[in-house]
Design a protein that fits this description.
By secondary structure, this protein is α/β, with parallel strands linked by helices. The chain is built from 16 helices and eleven strands. The chain has a seven-stranded mixed β-sheet, with helices on both faces. A four-stranded mixed β-sheet has the order 5-7-9-10. The protein starts with a strand and ends in a 14-residue tail after the last helix.
Length: about 350
C-alpha cells in the first residue's frame, strides 16, 4: 500500500491527502453523519482545484472517515435559521455547494465516490457527478427534501429526470430510501461491492489509478434483487403525470396496499415543494448543461429557503421533532401556478449563481 502523505487539514471536517497517484477526500464530521457545511464545500472545492493541475494526481477518491454514512446532506439547521432572517448565509452555502457540484460534474480526472452507508442530499451532490459510484450492502440513498419543505437539489432536477421511467419523480416526491442493489439497478451506482473489500480496493486504485474500472469490476459482486424493480410498473403508471393532483387521484383510484402506502407518504410531505420537485424534473430533463441546472436550482433554493414550509419543516423534523409540520398551503390545490412562477423566477443577474472559474 502506498504511504499516505498529509497535505494539511483545511478544516477538521475534511481530511485531504494523496496516496500513491490519487487524491483522497474524506468527510470527517461523524456526529452529523458528515453533513456538509459551507467551509467543508469550500475546502473540497479548493483541494480538487489544486489536484486538477497536479500531474502527479491522476484520480480523486471520495469517502468518509468513520461513522455510519457517507454524507447525510447539508447543514439544514443553519439553512433554516438563515432563511428565517435574511437568507444570506443560506444563499452562500447553496452558491458554494452548487459550484462544487458543477466542478465535479466537469472534472477532467477520474473520480470515485464510495457511497457506503447513508448517502442523502448533499452527499448525493458529491457522489453522482463522479465517474465511478460504488454502492455496498450498507448504502441507503435518498433525496428526502420534500419532507422538510425543501426540494431535491444539488442537481436533482438533472439526475432524477434521467432515471428510468418515472422512478425519478417517485424518489423526488416520496423521499423513498433505496439500497445499494436498487442504486445499481437504476444506474445511480456504477458498481456494487462488499463493504469489507473497500479498503483493499482503495489501496489498489492508489497503486494503479489507470486501472480503476478493472479493479472495481474485479471486486464487484452480484447484488441481491432490486426491490424497486417489483414496483416499476406501478410507479410508471401511478406517477405518470407532472401534475401532483393527478398523482393523488391515480393512487386513490388504484387502491392497492402499495398505492395506499405511497399516498399516505405524499400526504405527509410539503405540497408546495412536491410541486416544485415535479416542475424541476420536467424542466431539468431539457436543460442544455449541468451549469444551467445549477443556476435554476440556486434561484429556486434562494426563494424556497425563506418560505414558510422550509422553516416549518425543519422545526417539525429537526428541531422539535414532533413530525407534525403544518404546511401552507396544506393541499396540492392550494399551490397555484403563480406561486410556482414566483419560486422559479430567475434572480437578478448580479445575484444569480455562477460556476467556479
Amino acid at each position: 500500500m502506498a504511504k499516505a502523505r498529509l497535505e494539511g487539514l483545511m478544516t477538521e471536517d475534511i481530511i485531504s491527502f494523496t496516496e500513491g497517484h490519487v487524491g483522497r477526500i474524506r468527510l470527517n464530521r461523524p456526529k452529523a453523519i458528515h453533513a456538509l457545511t459551507t467551509v467543508m464545500c469550500t475546502a473540497i472545492l479548493e483541494q480538487i482545484e489544486v489536484w486538477r493541475g497536479d500531474e502527479a494526481v491522476r484520480a480523486v477518491l471520495f469517502d468518509h472517515a468513520e461513522g455510519r454514512g457517507f454524507c447525510a446532506g447539508g447543514d439544514i439547521r443553519m439553512l433554516a435559521e438563515s432563511g428565517a432572517k435574511d437568507g444570506a448565509e443560506a444563499r452562500a452555502f447553496f452558491h458554494t455547494e452548487y459550484r462544487l457540484n458543477e466542478r465535479l460534474f466537469t472534472y477532467v480526472k477520474p473520480t470515485v465516490a464510495f457511497m457506503d452507508g447513508i448517502t442523502m442530499g448533499g452527499g448525493v451532490g458529491i457522489a453522482l457527478p463522479c465517474k465511478y459510484r460504488v454502492a455496498t450492502e450498507n448504502t441507503r440513498f435518498a433525496m428526502p427534501e420534500t419532507g422538510i419543505g425543501l426540494f431535491p437539489d444539488v442537481g436533482g432536477g438533472w439526475y432524477l429526470s434521467r432515471l428510468p421511467g418515472r422512478t425519478g419523480q417517485f424518489l423526488a416526491l416520496t423521499g423513498a430510501r433505496i439500497d445499494g442493489a436498487e442504486c445499481l439497478f437504476l444506474g445511480l451506482a456504477t458498481h456494487y461491492l462488499p463493504a469489507a473489500a473497500l479498503d483493499e480496493v482503495k489501496a489498489k486504485i492508489a497503486a494503479d489509478p489507470t486501472a480503476i474500472e478493472a479493479i472495481l469490476d474485479a471486486f464487484s459482486e452480484e447484488p441481491p434483487p432490486a426491490r424497486i424493480e417489483e414496483n416499476l410498473e406501478a410507479i410508471d403508471r401511478l406517477f405518470a403525470s407532472d401534475t401532483l393532483e393527478d398523482i393523488y387521484a391515480a393512487l386513490e383510484t388504484d387502491g392497492s396496499a402499495w398505492a395506499r402506502k405511497e399516498l399516505a407518504t405524499l400526504r405527509s410531505k410539503s405540497p408546495q415543494t412536491m410541486k416544485v420537485a415535479l416542475r424541476l424534473l420536467k424542466e431539468g430533463a431539457h436543460m442544455h448543461s449541468f451549469a444551467d441546472e445549477m443556476r435554476q436550482e440556486y434561484a429556486v433554493g434562494a426563494h424556497v429557503v425563506q418560505r414558510h414550509d422550509f422553516i416549518e419543516g425543519v422545526r417539525a423534523v429537526i428541531v422539535d421533532k414532533d413530525n407534525a409540520p403544518k404546511w401552507d398551503p396544506a393541499t396540492p390545490e392550494g399551490v397555484t401556478e403563480h406561486m410556482l412562477d414566483t419560486i422559479f423566477a430567475p434572480l437578478p443577474e448580479d445575484e444569480a449563481w455562477t460556476p467556479y472559474r
